[in-house]
Design brief:
single chain; about 400 residues; alpha/beta; Rossmann fold; formyl-coa transferase, domain 3; 6-stranded parallel sheet; 3-stranded antiparallel sheet; 18 helices; CoA-transferase activity; Putative CoA-transferase; CoA-Trfase_III_dom3_sf; CoA-transferase_III_domain
């Protein structure tokens, strides 16, 4: 048994935010029916190289496991009727088009609600379904800038820096999943579905947490501090003899132990005796620490710091991360096999449940791979399906 066994999701999403959400739901056992355009499909199928096969990029494969793909030309009335038939027995309807798009097609929340009042309908967009920016396109780069992340990321004297992974898309997908699960629980009490409005900008305001509250309370505007922490010191990357390492000294007891490991007699110094003083004198302190750390290799320091209980770690490139023994032990690399393109490796499942475990049942699909299967379950005959293909509807 899986936690979302019996839950059916109609997935109209593409790119990253929506597919990440539906992947999480699929990992938990929901049946995901991914609706894609004929011929091209989800835009991310073409985001490469590298490609696994024609019309299947590694980008797409990374976020589209546990889904069935049906290709539909939803500009055609017959295709929209297929969507409505799917919605009659669905639990969740997920889309990430620009606001107003689904309403113009007759597939908006109010349209679907008339078909199925228990339907949980979730829309993900850059700026939400209302407000002065509702029609602005939302891309991760734009949202990282407007969401404050880029003003807070980078070296003090450098320009704004984008975080490598598309975090604003992924955070929106995770918040959407959280909202959908909450609405499913609410439905079990009320018997009714509801509409969920997820804004990527809203998600970034939520992520600002202590920066936002610091500004709202004291007018403090955070600045770029490189790998350092705006509120804790020392808590950053340090240069050693050969590599950089991360060290996180989170409290005063750790500070004393850290000084002992480095052989520094400054734990009680008037400039460094508490966190506030260390923040004020950060530049001077970092210079003192690095003058010691550069005398040994990073691996030597990591052994000593770990033994003393000081949070520390290496700065991995992706190859080292994916070959780390802890990552392998936690089964965070999975193999999936599809008869159309063979066996590939993809990231594993981060949520481990003791009683109703998640799993990967379906490999990332080829475009339209499950069209016939899905239509047959809706009652379409082979002749009708053949006709739909010939007319370019699927």
């Amino acid at each position: 048994m899986m936690p979302l066994d019996g839950i059916k999701v109609i997935d109209f999403t593409g790119a990253l935010s929506g597919p990440y959400c539906s992947m999480l739901l699929g990992d938990m056992g929901a049946e995901i029916i991914k609706i894609e355009r004929p011929k091209r499909g989800d835009d991310s199928r073409g985001w490469g190289p590298p490609y696994i096969s024609e019309n299947l990029s590694t980008y797409f494969a990374s976020i589209n496991r546990n889904k069935k793909s049906i290709s539909l030309n939803i500009k055609d009335p017959e295709a929209r009727e297929i969507v409505k038939k799917l919605a009659k027995n669905a639990d969740v309807f997920l889309e990430n088009f620009r606001p107003g798009t689904m309403e113009k097609l007759g597939l908006g929340y109010e349209d679907m609600k008339r078909i199925n009042e228990k339907l949980v309908y979730c829309s993900i967009s850059g700026f939400g379904q209302d407000g002065p920016y509702k029609f602005k396109p939302g891309y991760d780069l734009i949202l990282q800038g407007m969401g404050g992340l880029m003003s807070e990321t980078g070296e003090p004297n450098g320009g704004p820096v984008k975080i490598g992974i598309a975090v604003t898309d992924i955070s929106a997908g995770m918040f959407a999943c959280y909202g959908i699960l909450s609405a499913i629980i609410a439905r079990s009490k009320t018997g009714r579905g509801q509409f969920i409005d997820i804004s990527m900008l809203d998600c970034q305001v939520s992520w600002q947490t202590y920066f936002a509250t610091g500004y709202l309370f004291a007018g403090k505007i955070p600045s770029r501090v490189g790998s350092a922490h705006s509120f804790i010191c020392p808590y950053q990357s340090f240069r050693t003899k050969d590599i950089f390492i991360n060290v996180a000294v989170g409290n005063e007891d750790m500070w004393k132990k850290f000084c002992e490991v480095l052989g520094l007699d400054i734990a009680g110094h008037e400039k460094f005796s508490d966190n506030g003083k260390r923040l004020k004198n950060r530049d001077e302190l970092v210079k003192i620490i690095e003058e010691v750390l550069v005398k040994k290799s990073g691996d030597e320091w990591l052994v000593l710091l770990d033994k003393a209980g000081i949070p520390s770690g290496p700065i991995y490139t992706i190859d080292r991360l994916l070959n780390d023994p802890q990552v392998i032990h936690r089964k965070m690399i999975e193999e999936v096999t599809n008869p159309l393109y063979g066996t590939i490796k993809i990231p594993g499942l981060p949520v481990k449940l003791s009683e109703t475990s998640c799993s990967i049942k379906l490999s990332p699909p080829m475009l339209g791979e499950h069209s016939e299967e899905i239509l047959e379950k809706l009652g379409y005959t082979k002749e009708q399906i053949k006709s739909l293909k010939q007319r370019g509807i699927i």
